[in-house]
Each structure stands twice: as structure tokens, then as C-alpha cells.
Amino acid sequence: MVTPIMDRKKTVIHAGVLIDSIAPTAIRDQLIFVENGIITQISSINGVLLESIKSGYDFYDFSKYTVMSGLIDAHIHFFGVPSTKLDELMTAPEAFRSLRAAREAKEMLYAGITAARCCGSSISPSLKRAIDLGILEGPRLVVAGQFVCASNGTWDHIKVPVQAMREAGMLADGPDQLRQKVRERIREGAGLIKIGLSVGAVGDEYHAWGDDPEKSVTSYSLDEIRAATDEAHKNRIKVSAHCIGNESVLNAIETNVDTIEHGYPIDDKTRSILAERKIIVTSTAAQLYCHNASADEFSYSDGEKKLFAIHENSMRNNFEQGLKFGIKYALGSDLIGPPTHPQTLFYKEFEIVNNWGMSNMEAIIAGTRISAEALGLDDLIGSVEKGKIADLIVLGSNPLEKIQALKNVIFVMKSGNIVRNDVSNDKGSIK
């Protein structure tokens, strides 16, 4: 079993700057009391005798730094294969993939990502179980298990024999098969169902997303989607849907899908419905950033570069319009692992949406409190409040001044346990 660097039952943290993901501005000089992994009290330092506190608690002086909720990535994947060799998803042993993903999970936690939602991977239920049992270090996870899509649907590897795809367990056609897949996923340990509602047009090279997002087509009927959402909701778990294109988003809304992934391109009428009903749309911009950043080093073709530019332009335009309509965004990176898409780059999602129109505070709330809601864990995590689990990070500078500060994580606490501490507590300086 992994032993945390320190396992404190009673801890007090002095936050020079506290971003609680609730107040519209930061709060200065706050004391955060943690007992048995739970935040029991938050109070101003004024009038408090620090010496008396220090005698009863383990005290951490972060008066020079910013304290906030751990980051929550609402859309990642633990594929456990190199991002440049996704064909290995069909050939690499799952045991080997799981070991690779275990390393990625630990790196995420140390980067300040204390929770995440794995929106599709056959190895994710086992990874989650190992983390929950303390066998591995990693974020708390909500996982979907294997994808669910139609034949010739979103993630169907059409260059692979269809029998092999059926044996992989992701294909489901017709309401009865959709219900069965939901039951199978829950049996395997999923706490989320991920279904694909759109696919590229016939003949597109970029099958899952489409060569032109405006021309993507739907891949499931309303009756099929409704069978999946009804079965999932009966078991009190959420449904997440891959949606590229207006019609697929409307189908998701009509059938009570809980969160919409990507969610572009759409029209103003659809934006109004999403905003009015407060349906969460998950941003997924960092994966396109990583494609652009990796294109030269990994010899992307001119066609690939053009394709990703088309999607990035559409995603940005729709995100900016969505902000004007008041769409509720959670932040998800859609990162799948190294070498091109390491999950530790989630901080880039905050920088991108900030550049696309979100204020620093709006981005932080989207990537903590709203992301926690997407995971279905907002009653437990996502904000620094009394009664919430103590998933906290400390930053070397204030992200409300520069959002890039989210990269500079110097302390990580998960469930009250300190898993990373780069600060010399006696001087309050970085080691």
C-alpha cells in the first residue's frame, strides 16, 4: 500500500490567499482546519492565537502563497498506450496498459489534479479500484470503462475487422443492446456511461470527429440513446456523450444526457436551450493545443495540421458564443497520455479558455466546482468549504493575477493526506 508523505489527522493551513471557488474574489489570511480528511472550519486569522493552534494541530504556513481546491479534469482518458500509437489499443495487453496508466495517474496527482473523470477506457475501472484501495497514488476517479458506440459509430475502428470490434466490447446497436452495455459497464465498475452520438461523414479520414465538424452526422437514434440514459439513471449514474454537430447535441438534450462533451458546432437556438437548462458542456481544448505543439516534432501531415486547425477554429468560435449565452462549462482536457498529450498539461485548459474569454476566476470555478458537478461529486469536492473533503493545492503565485500560476503547484493534499510538499515549513519558503 502506498504511504503518503505525511498522514495528518489534525492539520491547520494558513492561506495567505484563499480561492475557495465560491466567493467571486480571493480571501486573504485564512485558516483552514482539517480533521480526518474533512475541512471542519475556515476562519480569518485575525484574533486567533496561532501558538494555541500549533499545540493541537500540525500547522502549515502558506502565508506567502495561494491555496485553492485541487484541480478537477472533467474529461481525460487513461489509454495506457503511447499517444502516437493508438492502434495498440487493440493489441497491447491490458495488464501492461494498466501499469503505464498507473504512472500517468500518479503524475497527475502530483501536478495538482486531485480528481478526474475518465471518459472512456477499458482499464479505468481497475485503475480506479487500485487508487481507492491505496495500492496506487492518483486522483479520485469517476470512470466510464470502455466506450459505447454504434457499429460504424464514434470510436469504431473501421479499419479493424468488425468481429474484433465486437470482441472489444464497445459496439451496441438497438435499444436492447444499449441497455445491456450499460448494465455490463456498471458490473465492471463504471460510475459513468460514455456514449458516442456523432461520427464523421461517410468517407471522412478523421472518423470519430469528422474532417469538417459542420458535416458530422448522428450515430444513434433517440430510442437508442434514451435506453442508455434510462438504464444509467435508474442506477443513479450519469451519462456523458461525445457530440460534434448541432443535431447530436439536440439529441443529447432530448434524451436527458447529463453532460455534453465538446458540444460544437451548434446554433443559437441550441445554445439558448443549454443555457436555460444549465446542462454542462465540457471544454476539450487542450488536446488540440497538444496536437499543434507536437505537429512538427512528430511529423504530422499537412492534412492533419489543416484538420486540427479547422476543429480548433470551430471549437473556439462556439466557446466564445457559448459564453455570451451563459452556457455552463466544466473544464476537461481530453488528454490521453504521453508523448504528445500528457495528462499533466491540464493547466493549459485554464490558459486556453481564459484566452477565449473566461475571466481567471470563471476558469478556476469551471475547473474546480463545475467540474466536480460534472463528476457528480460536488457535494464532496470542488470548493474549499466546511464539510468538504480536504483536496487542496498550494501555488507559488496567484492565478487570479496570472492564470499560468496553475502550473506552479508546490503542495498537494488529497483527503487530508499530504502527497507533495515543496515548501520548507519553518521558513515558509520553497525547498
Structural account:
- With 431 residues, this protein is α/β, with parallel strands linked by helices.
- It folds into two domains: 6-70 and 383-430, Urease, subunit C, domain 1 (Roll); 71-375, Metal-dependent hydrolases (TIM Barrel, Alpha-Beta Barrel), CATH 3.20.20.140.
- It is 33% helix and 24% strand.
- The protein is built from twelve helices and 20 strands.
- The strands form five sheets. An eight-stranded mixed beta sheet has the order 1-18-17-16-5-2-3-4. Strands 9-12-13-14-15 form a five-stranded parallel beta sheet. A three-stranded parallel beta sheet has the order 6-7-8.
- Helix 5 (175-188) packs parallel to helix 6 (222-234), helix 9 runs antiparallel to helix 10 (302-325) and helix 11 crosses helix 12.
- It is globular, with a radius of gyration of 22 Å.
